[in-house]
Amino acid sequence: MTDNEQAVVAVDDGSVGVGVEPWGWSFLLDCRFTNHWIKDKEMIADFAKELVKRIDMEAHGEPIIEMFGDGNKRGYTLVQLIKTSSITCHFCEETLDMYLDVFSCKKFEQDVVCDVVRDFFNPYFMRKQFTYRLA
Prior knowledge:
2 helices; S-adenosylmethionine decarboxylase
């Protein structure tokens, strides 16, 4: 390390710090044993549009939905660009699992995300992870 470089250590304790505003918010949702609508491209598109609306975001274009993967990884992948970042999700057809990431520099309600997922895909189990994005 040169004299002009500093070692930086980040501690992820979930806190932001007094007077520090996060740059963004990231919400991850792992869902097990959903219904068969995860195999329906049109239903996934409707889900993306409803999620954008209910968390008060602005879509940038139409949702992109493509089939990817092999074996138990095969399923649709969704990418919905939003004005403040993106929503991505992968749906595993064989296992009926889904993995959703909502990232935005505009605040949104995590509970609303969960409600929309329940309304569309009715998962048996949801694991939630939320983090502030700081530089």
